[in-house]
Specification:
The chain is about 60% helix and about 0% strand. The protein is mainly α and about 400 residues long. A hairpin with a 7-residue loop joins strand 1 (about 165-170) and strand 2 (about 175-180). The radius of gyration is 25 Å and the shape is elongated.
């Protein structure tokens, strides 16, 4: 099709003009398309010259070299609008068309990662990838499957980097990260780009630290799609390849979960949902077991929003149930605390506080488990000795 890139760029421009003023779903990372926008999808699908493969190739061309159009629009990102259209397009084409066009889709996904797209655009790339997996979880060729795994790894890593953008290093050590002191911004996905500039100006008036606008959205999106996506992309005999990627993601997640301040609450909620979803898959355990147990034993553990309790219950249940050593480790700590003084230099108040802390965690573990799951371990002399 002649001038295909300009045609698709015009579609992206009109897509932006036809967006909903208000979306019914708040804090949605990938906005829902309006009825008028969906008419554009049907328009493109009705053009005989715009086969699925051609659309994908043309979208890739627009992303690489956006035509000079509507530069007077202050908040318009042609690439993001193009990907919003393409995401809705992928949702509505037949599975057969999507599968037949896999080489073109793979090229689009691979080439988009190094382009440095705006964060909302990168979210849409992950959304497109997830849609493909939902529609076609298995590729016949091992080569195609390995390429799908590689591009998934790169796309998730890119989102992970955005997720960690509200963190900063406290020392020169790479692993030592903490949450920035600035407020975290949460805006509606439909208006991400339009609202960002004004919000940043407002926040920066009250804070000397530049806020990250997109970190909470990145964490939320990962919580929604990551666990199931990785489980589908990597087959049962390939799960080990997932661990390094998850370790890297947890490197960004744990600092948010250590911070119980009010300004970090949006990130904490998103991270606990992400960890909860990952914990449901036993093969991921190596990536989060130690960190989850350390967070559980932290003295600030119970300082959380009530909406996070159900997620922590799922995490603790998976943590204690999927092996025999973790619960025994907790019981050993409780037994030691109950049987003797923790240290020659520990005063009585500190010792009682430590006992209370451990008993609270034991109670929460039982609360998170099935009825009578740990009955055989409790009320044994080794756990609750009568020595006073």
């Amino acid at each position: 099709m002649n001038h295909g890139a300009h045609f698709m760029a015009a579609i992206a421009y009109v897509w932006n003009e036809r967006k909903q003023v208000k979306t019914p779903v708040r804090n949605k990372v990938i906005p829902l398309a309006s009825e008028e926008q969906l008419l554009l999808v049907e328009l493109v699908r009705s053009v005989s010259a715009m086969r699925t493969e051609t659309v994908m190739q043309t979208v890739k061309e627009v992303l690489k070299q956006p035509p000079a159009i509507a530069k007077d629009k202050k908040h318009l990102s042609l690439e993001v609008c193009m990907l919003q259209f393409f995401y809705a397009y992928v949702q509505r084409i037949p599975v057969s068309s999507l599968v037949d066009s896999w080489p073109s889709l793979l090229a689009l996904l691979k080439d988009s990662v190094p382009l440095g797209l705006p964060a909302p655009g990168q979210f849409l790339i992950l959304g497109v990838l997830n849609e493909f997996i939902l529609k076609n979880p298995n590729l016949e060729s091992k080569k195609d499957q390995r390429e799908l795994q590689d591009v998934t790894h790169k796309v998730v890593e890119a989102i992970g980097t955005i997720a960690g953008s509200s963190l900063e290093q406290t020392t020169w050590l790479r692993r030592n990260l903490e949450v920035k002191a600035s407020p975290q911004i949460v805006v509606d996905g439909a208006n991400l780009e339009a609202d960002v500039e004004d919000l940043m100006l407002t926040v920066m008036e009250a804070s000397s630290v530049t806020p990250s606008v997109y970190s909470v959205h990145a964490l939320t999106l990962l919580a929604e799609v990551l666990a199931h996506l990785l489980d589908m992309v990597f087959y049962s005999d390939e799960k080990e390849r997932v661990i390094p990627l998850l370790v890297n993601i947890m490197h960004y997640v744990v600092p948010y979960l250590r911070n119980h301040s009010a300004h970090n609450a949006p990130s904490y909620r998103a991270c606990i949902q992400l960890l909860s979803s990952l914990s449901g898959y036993q093969y991921t355990r190596r990536a989060w077991k130690k960190e989850a147990f350390d967070l559980f034993m932290d003295h600030t553990f119970f300082q959380m929003d009530s909406s996070c309790v159900s997620h922590w219950r799922a995490i603790i249940d998976h943590l204690m149930t999927h092996d025999k050593t973790t619960f025994r480790d907790l019981m050993t700590r409780v037994a030691v605390a109950q049987s003797s003084s923790l240290s020659l230099f520990t005063n009585r108040d500190a010792e009682l506080e430590q006992r209370a802390m451990l008993l609270k965690r034991l109670a929460f573990t039982i609360y998170s488990s099935e009825v009578d799951q740990y009955q055989k371990y409790l009320f044994q002399p080794a756990v609750f000795p009568i020595n006073e």
